Every structure is written in C-alpha cells, then in structure tokens.
Amino acid sequence: MLISFDVVHEHCGHKKAREPAAARKIVLVGNPNVGKSVVFGALTGRYATVSNYPGTTVEVSRGITTIKGEKVSVVDSPGTNTLIPTSEDEKVTRDILINEEVDCIVQLIDAKNLRRGLLITMQLAEMGIPVVVALNMYDEAGERGIEIDVERLKKVIGTEVVPTIATQRWGLDKVKSRISSAAPPQVAVKYPDTIEEGARRIEELLPKELRSKKALSLMLLAGDRTLDEWVDRVLGKEEKARIEEIRAGVQYRYSEPVGFIINRLRLRKVDEIVGRVVRTVPHKGGPLADFIGRYSMHPFWGLFILMGVLFVMYEFVGVFGAGISVDFLESHIFGEYLNPWVTRISDRLLPVEFLRDLLVGDYGLITMALTYAIAIVLPIVSYFFIFFSFLEDSGYLPRLAVMVDRIFKMMGLNGKAVLPMVLGLGCDTMATMTTRILETRKERIIVTLLLALGVPCSAQLGVILGMLGAVSLKATLWWAGTVTIVLFFVAFLASRVVPGETSDFILEIPPVRMPQFRNIALKTLVRVQWYLKEAVPLFMLGTFILFILDKFKLLDTIERAAALVIVSLLDLPSKATGAFIIGFLRRDYGAAGLFALQKEGLMDPVQVVVSLVTITLFVPCIANFFMIIKERGLRTALWMAAFIFPFALFVGGVLNFILRSLNVSL
Q: What contacts 152, CB < 8 A, 6 or more positions away?
C-alpha cells in the first residue's frame, strides 16, 4: 500500500485549529503512555495542527495522511482509561468519539497490560465503530515472559489485532493496511435483563441516525453526568427527564450503583479473554540469576558485574562480530566476488566515466557505500543488537539504574536517567524521545545533552568496538575512560548551570530471567530492518555527497582548510577530514570512514584512539539534531551543537597531547 504525507503545521493557543479537509477520519485511542503520539507521527509525518478542544484546556493533535490516494484525517485523542470520564482528558476523548464522524478507531494497547486496554475495547465494541487494535510494546511484553496468542485474540474480539513496536515502527505498516478493512469488534458483554431492558428503552429516545446508541445508553444508565450538556443540546429537557426516570427505575432494582455493576461485568469479560489468550512464562532463575539479581544493584560488587558485562560485549561485538564476520564479508564476499564483478559489468556497460565512478569509483555507491553499510557496519550492529536485546530481556538494565543512582545524583540526575542513555546505545534519536520518562525539564535537558555529546548509537559503537578490537584492550580503556570522564564532567557542570530541580527515584525492578530466544530474535530482526531502512539510504547519500565534493575538487579544498585542526591539533591523516565532515549526516558513517583508514594502515593505535574519542563526542547526527529541536526547541538544539563541536575537537587535541607527551604505548 502506498502512503504519502501531506500535513500542515499550526499552533493556535486556545483557538481551534483548521482541520485538514479529508473524506474519512481516524481516531487514535488508548490508555496514557501507550505510544499514541509515536503512531500519530508515523501516520502523519512531522507536522500537525495542535489546538485546544472546544470549551476545554486539553490539546488535541490533528494531521492528515493519504491512504490509497484518499486523504484521511488523523486525530490523536488524549489518553483515557475509560469512556465514562473521570477527568477532562477522558471527557475529550469520549466527546470526540460521539460528536465527530469517525470512520475507524486505531486502539493502542500496552501488550504488557492487556487487561487494562481490553476494558476500553469492550466499550468501543458497544459504539459500533470499526477498530484496529495495535498491541504496542510487544517486545517489552516478551521481556516479562508475557506471551499473547494474537490469532486467538483476533477471533475472540472479532476485529483486527496487530503486534507493534511503535518506537521501531515495526508493525505500523500492517496497522495502516488494516484500516480500510476494519470492522467493529464483535465481542459483547452479557448484562442482566434489567440493565439490557433499561438500555434498550433509553436507545429508543436517542436520535435514529446516531451510531453509538448502545454505548451512550449504557453511559446514561450508569449515571454519567458529563453527558448532561449533550443530552440538553441534542434531546431536550423532556427526554432528559424520561432517561433519568428509566435510570432510577433500574437503579432501584440493585443495591450497588448500576455503573459499578456494568464495569464489573466488563472486567469479568476482559479477564475471561485474557485467560484464554495470555500465557506467562514462569520465571526461571538458578544460581547465576540469583547472584546477578542480588549483587548487580550493589554499589561495589555491581561494578564488577558491569565490567564483566562490558568485557563480554567487547569480545562478542568487537572481536567476534567486527573481526571474523566483517573480515569474511568485506574480504571474501565483497572484496573477491561482488565488487570485482560489479566493476567488470560497469566497465562494459557504462562508457561514461562519471557514471562508472559514481557506482564503482573511490566514492562509489557500491564499492564504498554498500561495502561500508553491509560488509562493515551491518554485521557489527547485528551482533550488538543481539547482545543489547539479551540485556533488555534479562532484567539487568533496571538494576544498573539502581546501582548508578548515587553517582547520577552527583550530576543532578537520578538512576532513571541511565535508561535513556543505555537506550542511546541503540539509537540516540529514539533515546532523546524517551527522555520524556524523566520528571523534570532540567533532567531532560541534561540527558539530551549527554546523548548528543558522548553516547554512541549501536551502529557507531559497533564500528568503534571493531576498531578497538584490532588494537588492544588498553586502547579500549583509554577510549571508554576518556568519554566517561567527559560525560561526568559535562553533566556535573550542566547540573550547576541548568535551572530546576531533580526528581525522586522510583523504578519497577523485574526479576532476573533467562531471555527467550524468540524474543531476542524478534528484537534483533526489527532493529536490523530499521537499520536497513533508515541508515543504508543515508550511507548512500553520504557517499554521493563525498563523490560530488571529490569530482568538483571541493573535498581537497575542505581537507586543506581543515588540516589545521585535523592534522595539527588531532595529528590525524588529512583523509580523516571526510569522515568528520560526513559524520554529521550519520556518526556511524564517519566512524566507518575511520575504520577504513585503519584497515588501510593509515592510522597508528594512538591516532585510532584520538579519532574515536573525537568522533564519539562529535556533533549529533542530523536525525538526532532534528529530534532535539522537536523535544527541546530550536534554541536549545543550537546551543548544544555550538558547544559540542568545538568541545569535541578540544578534548581530542588534549588527549592527543597527553598520549604523545607521555609516550603511551597502545
């Protein structure tokens, strides 16, 4: 299915924003913090109209997307736990569903808490509106040993159910493709005859053209006073009195509130469904798991466990992944077969030198871009994804947060800040978005700065470990120690400069368990797909930029201009300039350029460490920079970039001076 984006940007304060013209309307519904905003962004692109819902202070985002050539309006409703409102946010969501012409609802459910989400599904079923259920955070459910029989759930509730991981955009294409064929849920709650009869009598008083009569009649029967204004406007005082008479008659038959009985029966139905489709894998501990669970949070012994984890990661990713796998792909597959074969074909079929060089030259899209992206970076990041997924599912990461809480407090943060920073090892862009879990603006700004400054993403870290694996463990310690000291120093200063307070540290600690192979494979597959979709095209673009700069003799000019810094200050080869120039497009691409120089024998061990420290601390990639603008604002993003760029070069120069002056052998 082809999907294009056409979205306007407008911020209207307390005025209602102009809603994009569209023939159909989709509303995103779900509990708070289930990823609706991420899905909204994926459907509508970067921009949206933002306005207060009429008569409230609640903001509602609206955008527009095109599905199969048809413009479709998308509404991101406020998070809700029930359609019988207990807050202004919940009332707005309910009002959107009953007041606006909704063609389809995309309900996001936290897969870790299916029970809470299905309670809303029961109410949506009574509205008679087509629904697509997105089981979001599907990977996190797997981490906790929660297995959901998706096919059985689909049959039980009678509508489309799609597992998703919104932050990775996994499964969202399937959600989009199901929108056109969605149908109302076919699951129903059996209420007592008295309640059913009362609801039927109220339905007869509602407008015939109203689609959600069953849902509204039950809300009115439950005594939902937030509907009084709607009843006065649509039905009038006489009908309102008759509805109240019916409600009172039904209530007279029960000692408990009718609303309580209705909700209890819905929950009973939900529990029945959950019991049929959810299986929790029992916690499998053992001596090693008990040891890690007991000591990984200890301020002293936990450090040894952390060092052990880092050592295993170094061996698995840096030595095995970057050594054996990269050598096989680069030297044998690409070096002996693919690149020579493509070069011969290009020589025969492309008489134009410009086009031939574009594909197979020094900066060729195949000989350089694909070789870097597939032969060098892909195997490294794949091994890292496997290892990182193992850490996530084992329950170790929350324990790491507890262990470092005291240290992070010295930086004006708490242990929870380590979670987005560890996620930054996967993708700094997504990690910047997850800083929302931090309670205060001060904490979010500091962690965003640290992510942009010195937390390498998976692709970059994989290449770095690959380069260090070819040098020595001592070189790795110099790199890691320098970056760590810089991060703590900058965080300490930022905590004194950035105004605001820190928050208390409260975090759920899951049990330590042996991760399931299936869940690790799923996470790795999703992240590799993300890499192929998001990173490889940028590798191609970066190579094309270098190709154009080289063809027009601009690369030599830039290298000469930057020689004062790259050669004199950092003592690196002039060719390293290209890696730093393109590092803004993707930092891992810059690291891959340094890796290529190392494999050509153009850098000694000291130069390797200096270049890696500098590229690690270098300006954030363009995707991360845009995310910082979105989350923290343009002014903050520019200040961060203005600080990071010269600071990275300064640290690299100081490190080079220290290593050369002390004649350190790496």
A: 276, 277
Residue 494 lies in a domain: yes
Angle, helices 441-454/622-632, rounded to nearest 10 degrees: 170
- What is the band of 322 on the pLDDT scale with cuts at 50, 70, 90? low
CATH number for position 248: 1.10.287.1770
Mean pLDDT of the chain: 83
- CA-to-CA distance for 466 and 323, rounded, in angstroms? 7
Residue 585 — very low, low, confident or very high, per pLDDT cuts 50/70/90? low
Residue type at position 357:
D
Phi, psi for 87 (deg, rounded to 5)? -150, 170
304 with 429, same domain: the answer is: yes
Cα dihedral value 382, 386, 392, 395, nearest 10: -160
| Token pair listed for 161 | 């159910």
d(CA 150, CA 600): 51
CA separation for the pair 89, 80 (Å, rounded): 7
Within the chain, what is the greatest distance between any pair of CA atoms?
93
Residue 360: Cβ within 10 Å count: 21
Contact 659, 609 (CB under 8 A): yes
Q: Amino acid identity, residue 607?
A: Q
Same domain for 343 and 220?
no
Residue 50: enclosing H or E segment and its boundaries?
A: strand 49-52
Residue 333 pLDDT greater than 70, yes or no: yes
Cβ neighbours for 650, distance < 8 A, ≥ 6 positions apart: none
Residues in Cβ contact with 445 at an 8 Å cutoff, skipping those fewer than 6 apart = 494, 498, 632, 636
Write down which residue in 157, 179, 201 finishes a domain.
179
- Element at 101 (helix H, strand E): none
> At residue 2, does pLDDT exceed 80?
no
Here the tokens at position 649 are 């070069």
d(C-alpha 376, C-alpha 539), whole Å: 12
Domain count, the chain: 3
186 domain residue, yes or no: no
What distance in Å separates the CA atoms of residue 457 and residue 445, rounded to the nearest whole number? 19
DSSP 481-542: HHHHHHHHHHHHHHHHHS-S---------PPP-PPPHHHHHHHHHHHHHHIIIIIHHHHHHH
What is the pLDDT confidence band of residue 285, given thresholds at 50, 70 and 90?
low
**Overall pTM > 0.90:** no
For the chain, what is the radius of gyration of the CA atoms? 29
Q: Give me the sign of the Cα torsion angle 235, 237, 238, 239.
A: positive
Per-residue model confidence (pLDDT) at position 6: 35
**pLDDT attached to residue 487:** 93
Is 285 part of a structural domain of the chain? no
Range of the domain at 238: 193-280
- Let me know if residue 505 belongs to a domain: yes
For residues 545 and 347, give the distance between their C-alpha atoms in angstroms, rounded to a whole number.
23
DSSP summary character for residue 86: S
Instruction: Give, as one character, the DSSP assignment of residue 21.
Output: P
Residues 428 and 326 grouped into a single domain: yes
Domain end, chosen from 280, 315, 334, is at: 280
Residues 374, 366: Cα–Cα separation, whole Å: 10
- Looking up residue 45, the CATH number of its domain turns out to be 3.40.50.300
Question: Are the CB atoms for 581 and 588 separated by under 8 Å?
Answer: no
Please tell me whether residues 307 and 349 are part of one structural domain: yes
